[in-house]
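Technical annex, item 7. During the second reporting period the consortium partners agreed on a shared format for inverse folding records so that results from different sites could be compared directly. Each record opens with the tokenized structure and is followed by the designed sequence. A conforming record, contributed by the partner at site C, is shown below for reference.
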């Protein structure tokens, strides 16, 4: 039977935090958390690494986390991000440019993975350079018709344009966005006169999406799909930091959906997983069994 992959596609980088550097980047975070629920042998992080010592460190860290990856070496430095945390553990980022993940090549191996893909998550950041942007689109276009294509928008600094967002919406079937990002998108597309719910329904219909997932931090989250919607409150937890919490939400929702759970059960699991990750340092903590077991319900 042909192997079907779940892929995190885009930037591979190190988050340089006050206490030291940790492997980061949404694709690896997503793949890691999906792998906890579905098995690491079924997940893959796809990006590019430099021809430097940090690339070898990256591969060692991915191996340590049990992550499979497809990351060809290119003649650019491996990516890093300076992360500062405020008093509430909310991160701000200084993302270095001209790095390996800006130059991801579309290799025959990537095309083979794309053609065997059952779900892929991609964002906006890795599209800031034309090389990686075209690789991402070619990958998405090569996926099977039944592939779940999640656009976790992840707007960072100035690394996005209206044209990139529009093209990404046309390449996905699920949009994951937070309330601040939705406000930015609404201003950009002229939706500001509509309330939040109508903005989500409009995007869902205009781009023919299966779902729009809206997260609002402590104010809960919403899932809109085919005339139905759900709302789940955010649990009150003691926050260590929020790095990777959004990626874990997306991953848990994806894994639960692939396992056949209903949209509301997938939504509730995603909320609880994300809340747990907020209580831990770093983006890739171990997951308690009580959360892992819910994928089998």
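Designed sequence (site C submission):
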């Amino acid at each position: 039977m042909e192997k079907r992959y779940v892929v995190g596609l885009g930037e591979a980088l190190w988050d340089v935090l006050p206490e030291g550097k940790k492997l980061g980047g949404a694709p690896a975070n997503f793949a890691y958390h999906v792998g906890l629920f579905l098995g690491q042998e079924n997940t893959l992080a796809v990006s590019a690494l430099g021809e430097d010592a940090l690339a070898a460190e990256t591969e060692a860290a991915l191996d340590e986390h049990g992550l499979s990856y497809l990351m060809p070496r290119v003649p650019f430095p491996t990516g890093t991000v300076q992360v500062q945390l405020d008093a509430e553990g909310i991160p701000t980022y200084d993302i270095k440019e001209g790095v390996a993940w800006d130059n991801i090549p579309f290799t025959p191996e990537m095309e083979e993975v794309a053609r065997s893909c059952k779900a892929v998550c991609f964002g906006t950041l890795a599209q800031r350079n034309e090389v990686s942007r075209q690789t991402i689109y070619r990958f998405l276009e090569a996926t099977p018709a039944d592939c779940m294509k999640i656009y976790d928008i992840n707007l960072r600094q100035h690394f996005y344009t209206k044209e990139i967002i529009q093209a990404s919406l046309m390449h996905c079937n699920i949009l994951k966005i937070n309330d601040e990002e939705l406000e930015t998108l609404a201003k950009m597309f002229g939706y500001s006169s509509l309330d939040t719910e109508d903005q989500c329904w409009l995007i869902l219909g205009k781009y023919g999406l299966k779902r729009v997932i809206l997260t609002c931090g402590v104010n809960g989250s919403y899932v809109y799909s085919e005339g139905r919607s759900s709302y789940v409150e955010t649990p009150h937890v003691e926050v260590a930091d929020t790095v990777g919490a959004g990626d874990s939400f997306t991953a848990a929702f994806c894994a639960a959906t692939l396992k056949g759970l209903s949209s509301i059960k997938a939504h509730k699991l995603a909320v609880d997983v994300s809340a747990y990750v907020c209580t831990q340092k770093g983006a890739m903590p171990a997951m308690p069994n009580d959360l892992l077991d819910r994928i089998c319900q």
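The mean pLDDT is 92. The two ends are 25 Å apart (CA to CA). All partners now use this format for quarterly exchanges.
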